[in-house]
Amino acid sequence: MAMRPYIDKEDLNQALETLKSGGLILYPTDTIWGIGCDATNPEAVEKIFALKGRDKGKSMIILLGNDNQLVSYVREVPEVAYELLEASEKPLTIIYSNAKNLAPNAIAEDGSIGIRVVKHPFCEQLLQRFRKPIVSTSANISGEPSARNFSEISEDIIQGVDYVVKFGQQELSNGTASTIMKLDPSGKFEFIRK
């Protein structure tokens, strides 16, 4: 049985309180370091767009702690989604049609949303305690390369968030962005990024 990494309760609590108060966190995920906020809070999502200088026409990816939560944020979850999530060996972001119960500015103009059910020790505990989805967008200014490791994150991003998670800062990651797949309500899917 694999040992679970030690997660400092104070680190987790600070991240949790920051999310609850509408702030931004800088945190490690199952792919690369990300900037996160409460995905149901439009003001918090707006702060991410401002910090990254991101085009407001681009939607965000949100993280969930388990696939049971999908029905809370997507009107129709095709059955094949659960099969794809179970079969995937690497992080998989699925773009679903007809998002609901999320900040409107986190959702794409066509009503879709990218969702990843995350498998990462810190994220899993944070999501379990927060009980809401968290935005996950790369920790970089739009147009610049994504930071795989904490040491690669620009000072502008570090200074621009309200809390920097300590967990995982020393780890070197070969982190790559997730596979992205678009899924329509009928269950047809296409790969956007492999």
TrEMBL record:
GO-annotated biological processes: regulation of translational fidelity; tRNA processing
Coarse class of the protein's main subcellular location: cytoplasm
Keyword Cytoplasm on entry: yes
EC number: 2.7.7.87
Record Gene3D superfamilies: DHBP synthase (3.90.870.10)
Nucleotidyltransferase recorded as keyword: yes
Reactions accelerated catalytically: L-threonine + hydrogencarbonate + ATP = L-threonylcarbamoyladenylate + diphosphate + H2O
GO molecular function, one term: ATP binding
Keywords tagged on the record: ATP-binding, Cytoplasm, Nucleotide-binding, Nucleotidyltransferase, Transferase, tRNA processing
Gene Ontology CC terms: cytoplasm
Protein location: Cytoplasm
Alphabetical list of InterPro entries matching this protein: DHBP_synth_RibB-like_a/b_dom, Sua5-like_dom, TC-AMP_synthase_SUA5
A Pfam family of this chain: Sua5_yciO_yrdC
Annotated YrdC-like domain residues: 9-194
PANTHER family: SUA5, THREONYLCARBAMOYL-AMP SYNTHASE
Similarity field: Belongs to the SUA5 family.
Record's protein name: L-threonylcarbamoyladenylate synthase
